[in-house]
């Protein structure tokens, strides 16, 4: 791939550290992009933005932030398909990212979602590849999960806020409500 600006869709501060390091080691110029209407409630949304702002400052990473709280649009997207919501969630965020990459004339796009051990990695890859084909913007695939521990340790040592649940209000309930956690585990092929 031609060396140039890469649009990195960012889900949160801690998940940025390892992918950013790897991509920079490859000699790529990274433009961060925060677009996550899936993060609820509002105070948590703000907290994650603040954590990323700290990471961006420490790592001198330019980031474009979409700071409008997207609760309503997200819920409209997943209502009546809550058990399959992650697919819609990935599509919503990655489609916005590919459009941004196109607008910025980036060489390619990728996402920090590929770093998490708790996301549907293959599903994310599939959706991004499909978007890449549709929008004619190369998708830069890396399995950042290999650096999971390294990234977590760095986030801890930098004292970056690490969230206890994925993002949406459903995942918050599954995190804290034992009955829901069990129910969710019974739904096959889902990341959470
Ligand atoms: S669990 Fe995470 S990936 Fe799935 S819909 Fe909620 S925020 Fe999105």
From TrEMBL:
Organism phylogeny: Bacteria, Pseudomonadati, Thermodesulfobacteriota, Thermodesulfobacteria, Thermodesulfobacteriales
Disulfide bonds: 166-168
HAMAP family: QueH (MF_02089)
Ligand binding ([4Fe-4S] cluster): 11-12, 86, 89
Pfam families from the UniProt entry: QueH
Function: Catalyzes the conversion of epoxyqueuosine (oQ) to queuosine (Q), which is a hypermodified base found in the wobble positions of tRNA(Asp), tRNA(Asn), tRNA(His) and tRNA(Tyr).
Residues spanning the membrane: none
Protein name: Epoxyqueuosine reductase QueH
EC number: 1.17.99.6
Pathway: tRNA modification; tRNA-queuosine biosynthesis
InterPro entries in the record: QueH
The encoding gene: queH
Reaction catalysis annotation: epoxyqueuosine(34) in tRNA + AH2 = queuosine(34) in tRNA + A + H2O
Protein family per UniProt: Belongs to the QueH family.
Any one GO BP annotation for this protein: tRNA queuosine(34) biosynthetic process
A Gene Ontology molecular function term of the record: 4 iron, 4 sulfur cluster binding
Keywords: 4Fe-4S, Disulfide bond, Iron, Iron-sulfur, Metal-binding, Oxidoreductase, Queuosine biosynthesis, Redox-active center, tRNA processing
Organism of this sequence: Thermodesulfatator atlanticus
